[in-house]
Design a protein that fits this description.
Layout: H1 10-30, H2 32-36, H3 44-55, H4 57-73
Helix pairs in contact: 1-3, 1-4
């Protein structure tokens, strides 16, 4: 059985990135102070993902729908 990680499979990588963006944006909407403390460093990645999810939400939601359809149909 061949195991391929998400780093080498583009569809899996795109799914993980979209889930990260959506999760961070959702967590920031529930707990705003949780991600606002860490704007730099390693945890700053989560703040940046939340910011992308908030500002680019029509594009992110279109990508989520496209990925869901591609997973369901192919």
């Amino acid at each position: 059985m061949l195991i391929i990680s998400a780093l080498f499979n583009f569809n899996s990588l795109l799914t993980v990135v979209l889930l990260l963006i959506c999760t961070c944006a959702y967590l920031r909407s529930l707990f705003p102070s949780l991600l606002d403390k860490y704007k730099t460093g390693f945890l700053g990645i989560f703040w940046k993902c939340a910011r992308i999810g908030e500002r680019k939400s029509p594009y992110v939601s279109f990508c989520c729908v496209a990925m869901a359809l591609s997973i369901l149909l192919w």
